[in-house]
UniProtKB/TrEMBL annotation:
Keywords: Oxidoreductase. It comes from Candidatus Phaeomarinibacter ectocarpi. GO terms for molecular function: 3-oxoacyl-[acyl-carrier-protein] reductase (NADPH) activity. Its EC number is 1.1.1.100. InterPro entries: NAD(P)-bd_dom_sf (IPR036291), Sc_DH/Rdtase_CS (IPR020904), SDR_fam (IPR002347). Belongs to the short-chain dehydrogenases/reductases (SDR) family. Pfam families: adh_short. This is 3-oxoacyl-[acyl-carrier protein] reductase. The keyword Oxidoreductase applies.
Amino acid sequence: MKLDSSISAVITGGASGLGEATARALAADGVKVGIFDLNAEKGEALAKELGGVFAQCNVTDEAGVDAAFAKSREAIGQERILVNCAGIGNAIKTAGRNRETGEITAFPTDKFDLIIQINLVGTFRCIAKSAAGMMTLDPLENGDRGAMINTASVAAQDGQIGQAAYSASKAGVVGMTLPIARDLSREGIRINTILPGIFDTPLLAGAPEKVRQALGAQVPFPARLGAPDEYAHLAKTMIENGYFNGESVRLDGAIRMAPR
């Protein structure tokens, strides 16, 4: 798919971090961007800067997602690109023991379900609704109607202590990538997933510099945190390369996460 002003894109979680970097990279090629995010202040500012549109969106809210797509499509047209970056994490053991009091507690299932609803179900919700919209488009010269990028995590394959919910949600994203690619193959809609390692996103922005350096030092090469624009570069490659389909690719500097 050639990226230019005839193409529209929707980026969930697009107001910061990996989503913001991807929105900027696509807009630099002329793509019209729709930014979905909960943070209205950042989202509105970025959309204004890039000449796109912002829609406040909670991916767990069916009606809200429908409204966000409707707003974006009215402003910039039916998207041919969807990039799913909306997501959260937590760190809770399956069952834990308080070493001081001896109290034993189990992982609250409502907190487990929240991670699944946002990271996995929310991602699928946006995929299904975007795919239905893309199917109304005429195919491009190479047969493409659209391209989608999901964000998983290396935790999908080597989750750490306390990451049962997060790892399950991201493994689900990886697991559904190929079946969705097969579902949409006759419609000319491609889908791929990126599994980022340790990236320099707002999640780590408030961490002490020593902590950030220690995390970067765990990466075999290059021994540093990943840059959001490196994620955006891979996302663009997946979009532009018409033979890239149904793949889940680690972007992690060859790291394999230790148990903790």
